[in-house]
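CHAIN AND CONFORMATION:
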Amino acid sequence: MKDIRVRFAPSPTGALHIGGLRTALFNYIFARKNNGAFVLRLEDTDQTRFVAGAEKYIIDALKWCGIEPDEYADKPGDFGPYRQSERLELYKKEVDRLLSNGSAYWAFDSAEELDERRKAIDNWKYDHATRESMKNQLTLSKEEVAALIEKGEGVVRLRMPVDQEISFIDEIRGKVTVNSSELDDKIIYKSDGFPTYHLANVVDDHFMKISHVIRGEEWLPSAPLHIYLFECLGWEDEKPHYAHLPLLLKPEGPGKLSKRDAEKHGFPLFPLEWNFDGKMTPGFKEMGFFPEALTNFLAFLGWNPGTEKEIYSLKELIKDFSLERVNKSGARFDYEKAKWYNQEYLKTMSASDLVHFIPNNDSSNFTEQQVLKIAELMKERVVFAKDLINEAPYFLQAPTEYHEKTVRKKWKSDVSPKILQDMTVRFEQIEDFQAAILEEAFKSYVEENELGFGVAMIALRLALTGVGGGPGLFQISEVLGKEEVLKRMREGVSKIEQQKEALV
């Protein structure tokens, strides 16, 4: 078996779509699984769509996710250049071979002429049945063809054969067979000296010794064309293996995941932030996702290990991954599941690691030790580390109003005010304001007065936080400090009573 070499070949026309990132991930883990090489090749032959900064964005996004290529423009190997715009001489040489062996021909039809044909005839295409009636090398004299080429006109089209079965084995979908008569004569080379995707793709895969082409399902219709090109160039015995990944589907309803879906449901569609028409749009990173959680989520969009296990490190994905377990059917993009993955990763992290993700303006009112305690208390209750403090506003300020349902149902006017008043006295006497000491004082008071634990606890929690639930109340008290806790307890009695009366 020849060396495993895979490639991710995006176009630098904008931000890297999350579907493209998934394709890169599958290529990367397949390469690592098989001790192969992961190549980044930029398909930048369409210069009209080139976007400045897109190449750097793609590389930065891959690196953020921990899937840096083994070979690319800034880290060249033996098979460069890695930008197609720097490989034009190679494409010219191969297109000349196709022209000389009759596999391709020059065509000079104008865009207007082609549009007229399409308007006049439904489903019209440039193929074996129509090429003889068009303005091309097959219908013009050698002198006319030479003159038009000299003027810089024309494109080169691949000459598809008639009624020939083109077959290949897709590693995910099995045998795929298409009759050549169903395919049109695709443009493979333009008059500006640039190849189209189809020619450049095949030539580069050959000369870069790509062993497996793992790409999205949207490229499946192009695969027979590429197989035929390999044959026309005499490389039929060196074709790569193909595997077409399932589409990413929108969260609900039929169809592919789109930017409109992201806008509608409020989730990012790109790994990193990107400037759209002067407006910076946040990516998964800026939304607060850990790269490990994102790659774990993406791996399960189309692949599963056949077990109940869902949390996978990149190293574990590499160990268990196989193309045989990639699904054929589309994978629905579930943003809530993505958040679940992030939360699961967050829970396993230490407070000292999490504090680095908390915005400075959220943590500025606390000591380093307080921030560590808050992170530990809240990490089971938030999805994103950046929300560790702002998801619990009672750390930042005393409650100005109290949870209505809790006040209505669980604040007992004949008991709760006295509980708070008595506990205020007890807490005043505690010098070492630590959670364990506070809890012991509270339990002693409840036992001595034969009170229901829940009634007493809810009175204290309402006064300190304004809500009926949350992390450990005595740990919260320790973070807030003695002065703030006593202040909230004293003020809470009258405030909650007033709110209770207003609800009656």
